[in-house]
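Handoff note, outgoing to incoming analyst
You'll be picking up this chain. Sequence as last confirmed:
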Amino acid sequence: MNSQLSLPSKILLALCFVFAVVSVNWVAISSQRITHLNLDCGEPQGESFILGNAIAKVIHENNPRLDVSVIATSGSDENFEQLEKGAADLAIVQADLPGGRAARTVAVLFEDMFQLIVQSKSGLNNLNDLVGHKIVLQPNSGEFYSFLELAEHYGLKLEDFQLTFATGAEAEDLFRQKQVDAMFRVRTLNNDYITHMVQQTRAQILPIEQAKALQVRHPALEPALIPMGVYQGYPAIPPVDLPSISLKRLLVASQTIDAGVVKQITQIILEHQREIANAIPESYADLRPLVAGIKRPSASEGTGIALHPGAIAYYERDRPTLVSILVSFLIKNGGLLIALTTLPAGSLVGLWEWWQRLKQQADDRKLLADRYINSAIASIEIPGELEDVDRQSYIRSQQKTLEQLLVEAATALAQDQITQQSFRVFNEAYNTARLVLQRCAENSSEDLCDRYIQTLISFQEPSQSDLSALLQQVETSLIKKEITQEGFRTFMDAYRATARSLKTQRQEQAKSSPSTE
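Most recent structure output, in case you need it:
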């Protein structure tokens, strides 16, 4: 018998050997691959940035293959924008801001508080007293939108205030130098910078009431108290308990990040809180208690941002799987299975019916998956005859419908009503539709802003009431997210130029008109 291998057999054996070597090397390389992530955290002196650095350090210490870089930004609004652009992978944000299409919640980190601070002995006692006064806000931040929400609830508009925009340190300098009358901050209680400022300037913190009413339109906002003496025991600052509004600060991740990576991150920050607290520098030791607030978001907190699949995988890790349920059933019902094997041949009819039911279930699962996929594709169909505002409203409605489809499809997958393969096909259709709708919304926003500017330019001899009415429309569009902040700033530049021109014309007319005795 000839024991030598034929040429085809040798080639096949060589190919198998090469495949095995490549596979082993690929597994080895994959196990050593470093995943680099950007975490956008806000201002360098803020709680989010300090806590973000501690979280990044502990993540890397517990999983050296995860390298998290902490990025300083102007605040939550910029963080969401960076997530949408793909420039950020993780971000710490305010829960009351709309999350965009890319953001998915990982965990609640801590609680922030609305804090309205005014100069000592200013005679200002509530938000309405600030009309006509100078207020400093942080640009491109969640604080800006929080102030908009607050002002809108009290029937106030941006033009009712003299707004100044400055970053955190610059804003505090303006306040200390009394160049502004008030500042609005969304920060934790006993914030180090607010503490030093109110102690040194004897500034007054104003009460913010009607939190429950605000919560009706903004579910992420919650009633809260600023305790008496939280910033100084004697004399007490504030001198009494003050009503205010709190909201959660969230860790969010881009939906494009691998679920396995997010699951590891979630596990580390939930199970290594003592290490995170110890990683906060001694100079910021007063922030360490914040770490105890890291938790899973609850459905009642109204963040409006869906959980990341990786976070869900960690939070529901103890939930029994289909395989574990089947194994448990087999162990508990072994006698029943033995009895089934001894059934007479007539029972084959029952087995046939059982098989038909399984086949019908498979058909039903495919039909349900097809419905989700077709609905996702249909969501990008936008009637061309819609006006700008109606078009924006329709797009937002379609985006909400698409997000609801994702929730329904994920629920159907969890309940084994559709297959994983069908869900992957749906997810591709969902992502495509999401990007199309996002681009349509951006185009519609630009068109609407252009229309507002054209309306402003078209005024022949505008009255102050004409300008105010148009400005109110634009502010409403900004609040409703119908136009972007960049578009709003462009309009405001044109608005101010028109207002100055109108004022100059009237002054010249007044000078040129003959005086009457």
